[in-house]
Design a protein that fits this description.
Two copies of one chain form a homodimer. With about 350 residues, the first copy, chain A, is an alpha/beta fold. Chain A is built from 13 helices and twelve strands. The structure holds a DNA duplex (16 and 16 nucleotides). Chains A, B: It comes from Mobilicoccus caccae.
DNA sequence: TTGTAAGCGTTATCAG
DNA sequence: CTGATAACGCTTACAA
């Protein structure tokens, strides 16, 4: 028989024949399941390596009805998403979960990204800050377990894993008030998914201190921060501190202020949100609220796992005895659930913390 | 973990039965191929929609064996990669190809990313600036068409689509020389994939002007730029201009210089590489060499298409083996090779172009 | 125009 | 411990 022109056409049948065993034996041996002798296993493994055999994930998934592939949608342009994706990989590897990424771009909405993932028969979906209506989300959740990550959506049937935005904003406000600030402005996220939550958290935190919460319209990009800085520079009444919607906006703001000779934090303090890699740069030194991507990622995958187990077990008791943070709320609300991750503040130069 | 999950229970058999036709008719109708009456097609389509049917991509690909899925590896942390990924999606959509993304992170090398893509039986691979040996690349290329995007590697059997780095560096140097600079330093990319190419391009361009090419060790991150700036500030002989390896390093450098009261471009001009979104921000205003991600993406996908066509033809007509060294290398040099995209310079404030 | 049947590469079941 | 055999959901000759 002709040797395949393409090496990837080596199938398990070829391996089995070359090793002198049946395909089922080869399959078992290759997967490391018990049921074959050590000698056979070694021979099969060696043959497979020699032939350059690689399992066809598609065929396997087609046969097994319990795929391990989790689909992820994210926006490459958002640096926070990049951090989350990295964290997801870190959390997925030890769990033996395969990640399939699908990007959301200007020309490609969340729906397109999800459709492509669903066609690939991902067993579950993790949507990073999806910009969709709750109903749409619920629609997807009908066919596959869905986790909305870093999202304000609380929809029946979908698990939400998000930062406690109220606490995050309180962290920022308290930090500034402690340092004597009273005139604090929040530059909101404009069309950002979390805009309402963060603005609300800001207002609550300010009022708790008996302060007047001033919120200005901003956005999610550096450009929005730059525009805000320009408005701020020409305004009559300038605040003493600004809490931005995210780090990207905060950095745009910060750089423009500095370029205009404003002393940060002397004349004006700036606090960001997300604690991205850029915020930590020594020349930026942006104080920021950290969303803890690793915790978000871990809990998201764990929730998928528990939901999957429950689906499989149906009515039998769950034997888990861990004291996981998501445990309580998971039991309490059988079907939905918003698991909340506590943020923490990383104090740097822009709030006058470590000059 | 993740057991017992079924993405969608509705199969084409269900649709066919519900519509009162055979599965093959349903298949043909759903794919919009000719061979069924308009009435039947409509009935099947309607039934499918009502039942919430979705094709199982994996089963389809398993059967067709002519998959249209292209695997892509990239690093979420590199902003240039994000630009390329967006451009790839833009180029893929009209061509009707599906993209499958696989990230390269600190804990996950290119090899891991590629293995996962290969298990998914991607028909082809696009590796964005892969950090691997040529031999490894050639190994993958044996089983699937591979395009190395924005890579210096020129390996037999692998198509490379890259920016003309010599031209890019010449653009930067010429631009600075035109503005009267003669003491120009190149901050190289350290471990970056393109370090050797860009440094060589810099040297050539400088010598063409009769100037002494000074190259300093840098890196691919903002941190590297910051470190370089600190060295520069304390150095005895300071150049009048710096060409950085990429925008990230250039921006780290730029911000640190500005924070230290250095006038850019007055005291020192800075030029970056990649023309990332950040470089264009009004407060950054970084002059940069643009790699044109859209052109890179389009050409990469086009090369894959032509290569795939040729493979299809050859496997059906020529019963040769790939073990023939002469033939193989002949073919390789004939159909692969390096396609070069011309870069262009985007002049902004940091080189004193549009003050 | 439509239906029947044979796989694609894998794993699961149930015999030896 | 090992080996036939039947799916998984889909496409595609080939028949009707």
């Amino acid at each position: 028989m002709l040797r395949g022109l393409v090496a990837s056409r080596v199938t398990i049948v070829d391996v089995a024949r070359a090793a002198g065993v049946s395909t089922s034996t080869a399959s078992v041996a290759l997967r490391g399941e018990r049921g074959v002798s050590e000698a056979t296993r070694e021979r099969v493994a060696e043959t497979a390596a020699r032939l350059g055999y690689r399992v066809d994930h598609r065929a396997r998934l087609l046969r097994e009805h319990n795929p391990r592939a989790v689909g992820v949608t994210f926006s490459p342009a958002q640096s926070f998403h990049a951090d989350v994706v990295e964290a997801l990989y870190e959390a997925a590897a030890p769990a033996g979960v395969d990640l399939v990424l699908s990007a959301v771009t200007t020309s490609r909405g969340v729906a397109d990204a999800v459709e492509s993932l669903l066609r690939d028969r991902c067993s579950a979906l993790v949507l990073v800050s999806p910009d969709v209506e709750g109903e749409v989300l619920a629609g997807w959740a009908a066919s596959v377990p869905v986790v909305a990550l870093a999202s304000p959506l609380a929809v029946a049937g979908v698990a939400t894993v998000a930062t406690d935005e109220r606490a995050g904003m309180a962290l920022a406000v308290d930090h500034l008030v402690e340092r004597g600030h009273r005139e604090i402005v929040h530059l909101d996220g404009g069309d950002g998914v979390m805009t309402a939550q963060r603005a609300a958290g800001f207002r609550t935190a300010m009022r708790a201190h008996g302060l007047d919460p001033r919120v200005e319209r901003g956005g999610t990009t550096e450009e929005a921060g730059i525009a805000a800085a320009e408005r701020l520079l020409t305004a009559s009444a300038r605040p003493t501190a600004v809490v931005a919607y995210n780090d990207m906006a905060a950095i745009g703001l910060l750089l423009t202020l500095r370029a205009s000779g404003i002393d940060v934090p002397g004349d004006l303090a700036v606090v960001g949100y997300d604690d991205t890699r850029t915020a930590a740069l020594s020349t930026i030194g942006l104080t920021s609220v950290s969303q803890d991507p690793r915790a978000l990622a871990e809990v998201a995958l764990r929730r998928l796992a528990t939901r999957a187990d429950r689906d499989a077990l149906r009515s039998s008791a769950v034997p888990g005895t861990s004291a996981d943070p998501d445990r309580a709320s998971d039991d309490a609300t059988a079907e939905v659930g918003v698991v909340t991750i506590q943020p923490h503040l990383v104090a740097r130069q822009t709030s006058g913390s470590s000059r």
